[in-house]
Design goal:
Length: 221
């Protein structure tokens, strides 16, 4: 299992030759989605998650992706995917979907608040994941070295990464608490290589969840 196309610049992904991209968050997201529901995957990459949702859960799937190579790969898989930025007014109606998914992309868009507002508008539930900057290893590395943690940047440097809005889980939950139409239903850490760390992440996600996956209920307005 790998998380990003090897050698890629995460400011501009090229999915050529990376038709399948398994991620540790996928099984968690699949558990949160009801079988046969409608799902919009925002920042869908090469469409691996959409294929799983379609073929394994019988979901009706749509997506949006900025990278042209990702859109091309998705369409070869017979997926309905639009090309464009996801932090804008999206071309779907109010509550058109059961779920809107944004997996490990929130920290890379210019206007994350707009993205979250649109997810709330177009879907009954939002599923969001991101690298938790409040993860305990990052806290220690910042304390001891005073530098941006390389692990949190997936090996990139602060100047060569597309992660332009670093946030911790506490930041995100504070934002959601200020939105009367959204309520957190569940927080599940994506699995790591350590069962012990995963068990801690389930109890203290703000500190021990490396990549939290959050299910949010969006109330009707």
């Amino acid at each position: 299992m790998f998380d990003y196309p090897e050698g890629n610049d995460n400011r501009k992904y090229d999915y050529t030759g990376h038709e399948v991209l398994e991620r540790r968050e996928f099984p968690v997201i699949m558990e949160m989605v009801r079988q046969g529901s409608s799902v919009c995957d925002l920042g869908c990459g090469n469409g691996t998650l959409m294929v799983k949702l379609r073929d394994e859960l019988g979901c009706k799937v749509n997506g949006m992706e900025l990278a042209g190579s990702g859109v091309e790969v998705c369409r070869k898989k017979r997926l309905e995917v639009l090309q464009g930025s996801i932090d804008q007014t999206l071309p779907w109606g109010d509550k058109e979907f059961d779920y809107a998914v944004c997996n490990v992309t929130l920290q890379m868009v210019e206007r994350p608040e707009k993205l979250l507002e649109e997810m709330e508008r177009i879907a009954k539930y939002s599923i969001i994941s991101f690298p938790n900057f409040g993860y305990w290893r990052n806290r220690i590395e910042m304390l001891l070295n005073g530098k941006m943690p390389r692990k949190m940047l997936f090996g990139y440097n602060w100047y060569s990464t597309g992660h332009i809005h670093q946030l911790g889980l506490a930041d995100f939950l504070e934002y959601i608490s200020g939105r009367p139409g959204a309520s957190v239903e569940k927080i599940v850490p994506a699995p790591t290589e350590s069962v012990f760390a995963d068990s801690l992440g389930a109890v203290f996600p703000s500190l021990f969840a490396y990549i939290p996956v959050i299910l949010i209920r969006n109330e009707e307005k």
